[in-house]
């Protein structure tokens, strides 16, 4: 790999590198240790006594730095990162990459990027991990070190799997499989297991089961049973995918004690989730809820979550909504909002692909509704104590009256099948009119085209813009709209926008699930606030009431 001469020879960059390497985590080596040769120092870092091992690592760094032995210094930093304070892991990784570049050895540079990728991966920074693995692959590709090459490929494949690029991951795992079959039993079995997981995610359950069976068979032949529970774990999930729910429960409960014994909280959590989903599918919701709560416990204890486990919270929210337990419903809404913030950070590539019954806006709306309801209950309690029942009765009366009025208005609107929400009337009052009749006729024709082509849906539609479409000046345009449409220009445009949305809500189910922002954008409003205000004015009811009545009257 050809490196820039400017980078290699710049005294300034060398000085910066030395400053970096002599950062706040550098320590003075123990007397005499720097006189030892590199093999002694390397062996010293393997001592069981971590304090002693660290002394050898400090001396190794000092010796290689003083001799400008970049290969040794890169290796010394790599050793030190596992002995020093974990807070400095990334600083050591960056220093390793810096000195590795000075070595001009692509294998050392690639290994340094691989190490940094592994650190990012361990910290759930998947995008950064993938970026560093790709850089590692770029350098390692020019070397003959197949072991590191395939270690990098496996790392890239594993990260792509977690980011949701399953087909790309499969391609890389298949490359690794043929190499590991000859070189490493455990890596070979791990790759078979990873292929099974990927094929399950792509919906090819049969191929997933094939690799699970192959893994179990080869594990026995190789006398390596370490991966056996993981193949069974994967097969339990496949049973769920095939809707063999009882088999899924049996298989996953069989491997749970092994996951717990190995302190593998991640796979233990996944098993609990799919056991819960299986119980839910066979209508044993109470049992399912217990398992979904263990998913939540793992999130609280380990901050562990992944996209498929997110559904636990949706089902918990639905369950407690049916139980009319507002407090627990609110608890899991709050938790799901926190879960989503973690998922959106760790799984940026995948977050757009996740089907969410409860998106963030819907969750926040539900949260506010519950909090408002609880607040009202608290206020009612306080009011009773304070003898303010009259005010409460007034609010209840007004709310009931409004609902009754809204209901009547809704029925009236729905009865107007083909008519606009409010029929457009010509102005009956006397309006000074001094426009040539032929010109009026032309402008009215253009106005009808404007309405027919729904030009009013454009954002920021103003009188000047409208005049352009009518091929006249703003003064004439406003006069004609007032005389023949009975409205001032802004009211005319706004009412057309609202009538359009009302018709869409009445005739197309999908619009009833749109957010206010989406509806506002569909009609060309500049803001959600302007849309809701205009809707209230035009229909004499809030959009929420109108949409809910549509859903109640015409369920999907």
UniProtKB/TrEMBL annotation:
Cited Gene3D superfamilies: Homeodomain-like, Tetratricopeptide repeat domain
Database matches in SUPFAM superfamilies: TPR-like (SSF48452)
Coiled-coil stretches noted in the UniProt entry, renumbered to this chain: none
Stretches that traverse the bilayer: 380-397
Keyword terms: Membrane, Transmembrane, Transmembrane helix
Ranges where the HTH araC/xylS-type domain occurs: 437-549
Keyword Transmembrane set for record: yes
Annotated InterPro entries: HTH_AraC, TPR-like_helical_dom_sf
Name this protein carries in UniProt: AraC family transcriptional regulator
Species assigned in the record: Flavobacterium sedimenticola
Organism ancestry: Bacteria, Pseudomonadati, Bacteroidota, Flavobacteriia, Flavobacteriales
